């Protein structure tokens, strides 16, 4: 697909023949997961596929083979695979910003052939030049060759960023924390609530702290404000503890502050030496950037070899998405099943339930990836969509969620498709007496999707001795869709595969809906208004009066009640 065809008018999926037939199919669909499993011993095998190291069982979704066949036709009729190829080739599929969408280039191996040349630029060379600098820097910090201004080894690296410049790095660090082997802890500041910067730095020694200011644009209010706060904290603490003079301040900033950005001129304006800045490119969306230099904090805390393995995992899933036949292509199938759930089964939300405490930030990461990407009501030609788009992604690790919100997933009135994620090998193989605790944990993982799919019938409830009105309360309808994703272990490669899987699922949904999953204009109005409201918040009476009565009332409440 050329740039022109990539940007061609999107196809309204609801006008396709496949959509029409899916509607008929939905109406006519009979049976239940109980019946489908009972009558088809091959069901699990038929709907289970391996993608790189991920083992993905789709069989507990409310699908039959005709559903999948029709969904694949829908993908064909909405040019999903052509758009996929256009993305990998560097076509400007992000039309509203006239940009290529090339996060997949960030994980191509060095020396891949043929080289990827986009807009006249050898992208592979650019990517590996920056990676080399990031790794050299990480090695220097980890070995102690790079020290703070007073000559002490770095012990804490603080990443300041927000959105894509925070959520990916935090999630990956939390997931792979056991691999941090250089005595360097990573911390993260994102919120402009000043308590975030305060609490994160309160117990730190500035002499052993390195700060990474991560911002694609280097204009984000939260990040620049936090970077200034932390610079002030660091310099004043060094003045006190190490007698830093004003002449030495520049050197202190150079030894304790580095930056990651696509806007290296702005990095310099901030006072960070461009030598200590790592770039990336406007073809990397913020929420797709954890595998760019935005991951510098990970290379420092976890090490370049861990980061390399992570990238290799991303690439393995990219290759699967790019080359696997459609009927076995896991991101394609999962994206299409999400479309089925949203547009035909009327699901509004989607739970992501990792059975791994180390993945506790994965749902938060996915919220930005999926909702900033597909929370759109117009297609890429400006026309209004006529079907639902987006899904509300949310979740918590199991088993905690089981004791909080699973009740609604099991017995509520809404359909909530759920992705369960688990690993065969425990990160911490602990025993409670003779009991292997990981097996207890996994028994819960297996039990939940089984309960959702097959439920509990009236006969089964009565057979347990329950009578009267309690019977209904104890019944489970079943037919609550879920996908189970397993892998041998939560390695860096498997984590890369998981992230890339969800990136591509998000892509597939956006492509079917005809929306541009790579812009985020919806966050702009709030930012604009926050700037405009600043004088009113500071007490300018005429600015307060100019507001609507609700906003004016809230600002007055703030002005009257603030102490300190
Ligand atoms: O406001 C939304 C957003 O632009 C996200 O898309 C992005 O990840 C985040 O802000 C941070 O942006 P930056 O990396 O430019 O500071």
Automatic annotation (TrEMBL):
Q: Which UniProt keywords apply?
A: Cytoplasm, Gluconeogenesis, Glycolysis, Isomerase
Organism's domain of life? Bacteria
Q: Main subcellular localization, coarse class?
A: cytoplasm
Location(s), subcellular: Cytoplasm
* CDD domains, A to Z: SIS_PGI_1, SIS_PGI_2
**What is the active site of this protein?**
372 (proton donor), 403, 527
Q: Which Gene3D superfamilies match?
A: 1.10.1390.10, Glucose-6-phosphate isomerase like protein, domain 1 (3.40.50.10490)
Which catalysed reactions does the entry list for this protein?
alpha-D-glucose 6-phosphate = beta-D-fructose 6-phosphate
Going by the record, the broad EC class of this enzyme is isomerase
EC no. given is 5.3.1.9
Pathway(s) annotated for this protein in UniProt: Carbohydrate degradation; glycolysis; D-glyceraldehyde 3-phosphate and glycerone phosphate from D-glucose: step 2/4; Carbohydrate biosynthesis; gluconeogenesis
A molecular function GO annotation: glucose-6-phosphate isomerase activity
InterPro entries for this protein: G6P_Isomerase, G6P_Isomerase_C, Phosphoglucose_isomerase_CS, SIS_dom_sf, SIS_PGI_1, SIS_PGI_2
Query: What exactly does this protein do?
Result: Catalyzes the reversible isomerization of glucose-6-phosphate to fructose-6-phosphate.
Q: Which NCBIfam families match?
A: PRK00179.1 (NF001211)
Query: What family is reported?
Result: Belongs to the GPI family.
Name assigned to this protein: Glucose-6-phosphate isomerase
Its ancestry begins with: Bacteria, Bacillati, Actinomycetota, Actinomycetes, Micrococcales
């Amino acid at each position: 697909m050329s740039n022109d065809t990539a940007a061609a008018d999107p196809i309204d999926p609801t006008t396709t023949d496949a959509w029409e037939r899916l509607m008929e199919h939905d109406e006519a669909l009979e049976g239940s997961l109980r019946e489908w499993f009972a009558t088809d011993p091959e069901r699990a095998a038929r709907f289970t596929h391996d993608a790189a190291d991920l083992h993905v069982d789709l069989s507990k979704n409310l699908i039959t083979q005709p559903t999948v066949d029709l969904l694949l036709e829908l993908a064909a009729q909405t040019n999903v695979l052509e758009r996929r190829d256009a993305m990998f080739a560097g076509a400007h599929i992000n039309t509203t910003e006239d940009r290529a969408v090339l996060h997949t280039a960030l994980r191509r191996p060095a020396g891949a052939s043929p080289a990827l040349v986009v807009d006249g630029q050898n992208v592979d060379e650019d990517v590996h030049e920056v990676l080399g600098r990031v790794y050299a820097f990480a090695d220097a910090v980890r070995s102690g060759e790079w020290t703070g201004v007073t000559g002490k080894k770095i012990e804490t690296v603080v990443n300041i960023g927000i959105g894509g410049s925070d959520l990916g790095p935090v999630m990956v660090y939390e997931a792979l924390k056991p691999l941090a082997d250089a005595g360097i802890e990573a911390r993260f500041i994102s919120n402009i609530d000043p308590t975030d910067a305060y609490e994160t730095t309160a117990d730190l020694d500035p002499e052993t702290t390195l700060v990474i200011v991560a911002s694609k644009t280097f204009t984000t209010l939260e990040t620049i404000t936090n970077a200034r706060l932390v610079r002030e904290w660091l310099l004043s603490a060094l003045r006190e503890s190490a007698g830093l003079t004003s002449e030495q301040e520049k050197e202190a900033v150079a030894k304790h502050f580095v930056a990651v950005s696509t806007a290296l001129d702005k990095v310099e304006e901030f006072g960070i030496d461009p030598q200590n800045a790592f770039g990336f490119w406007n073809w990397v969306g913020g929420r797709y950037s954890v595998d760019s230099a935005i991951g510098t904090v990970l290379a420092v805390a976890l090490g370049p070899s861990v980061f390399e393995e992570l990238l290799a995992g991303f690439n393995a899933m990219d290759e699967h998405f790019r080359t696997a036949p459609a009927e076995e292509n896991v991101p394609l199938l999962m994206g299409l099943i999400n479309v089925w759930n949203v547009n035909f089964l009327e699901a509004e939300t989607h739970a992501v339930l990792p059975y791994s405490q180390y993945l506790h930030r994965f749902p938060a990461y996915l919220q930005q990836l999926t909702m900033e990407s597909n929370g759109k009501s117009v297609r890429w030609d400006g026309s209004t969509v006529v079907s639902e788009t987006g899904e509300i992604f949310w979740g918590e690790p199991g088993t905690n969620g089981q004791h909080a919100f699973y009740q609604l997933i099991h017995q509520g009135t809404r359909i909530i498709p759920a992705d369960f994620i688990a690993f065969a090998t425990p990160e911490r193989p602990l025993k409670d007496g003779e009991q292997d605790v990981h097996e207890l944990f996994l028994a819960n993982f297996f039990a939940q999707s089984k309960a959702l799919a097959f439920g509990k019938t009236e006969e089964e409830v009565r057979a347990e001795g329950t009578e009267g009105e309690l019977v209904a309360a104890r019944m489970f309808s079943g037919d609550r869709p879920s996908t189970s994703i397993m892998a041998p272990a939560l390695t860096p490669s498997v984590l890369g595969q998981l992230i890339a899987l969800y990136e591509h699922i998000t892509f597939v949904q956006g492509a079917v809906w005809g929306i541009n999953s790579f812009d985020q204009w919806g966050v702009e109005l709030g930012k604009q208004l926050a700037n405009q409201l600043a004088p009113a918040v500071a007490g300018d009476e005429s600015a307060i009066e100019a507001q609507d009565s609700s906003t004016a009332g809230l600002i007055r409440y703030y002005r009257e009640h603030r102490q300190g």
